[in-house]
Design a protein that fits this description.
Radius of gyration: 15 Å
Largest sheet: 3 strands, parallel
Number of strands: 6
Strand order of the largest sheet: 2-1-3
Shape: globular
Order of helices and strands: EHEHEEEE
Number of helices: 2
Structural class: alpha/beta
Helix content: 10-25%
């Protein structure tokens, strides 16, 4: 590759994994069979790579946003990177939490 991301800091960093298997009935999204196996494999791989992994299951949108805000306020100065993964249904500009959709925006854009 033309560029490589340096990953030799004091710690690898935080990895958040949001696993949505179930959805509120009125969202009309089907359950996601097999997502727990995907989550387990992903978490195992991230841990093997040295990440501090926190996995969450079937959170409401407000809870997801709270976890994201908490991560944004944490001290990451000695970490190589931050990883956030959503295992869910989604469309063009949003992903689904348990009870509603969450708009995805550019990381550097303020809402």
């Amino acid at each position: 590759p033309a560029e490589e991301y340096r990953m030799n800091g004091e710690r690898r960093g935080l990895a958040l994994v949001f696993n949505q298997e179930w959805f509120w009935w009125w969202i009309t999204m089907p359950e996601r069979h097999g997502t727990n196996a995907d989550k387990d494999n992903l978490c195992r791989t991230l841990k093997d790579k040295g990440f501090d992994v926190s996995a969450f299951h079937n959170l409401k949108a407000e809870e997801v946003l709270k976890k994201m805000h908490e991560a944004s306020e944490a001290d990451h100065t000695d970490a190589d990177c931050f990883v956030c993964v959503f295992l869910s249904h989604g469309e063009k500009d949003h992903i689904y939490a348990y009870d509603s959709k969450i708009k995805i925006q550019e990381p550097d854009r303020k809402s």
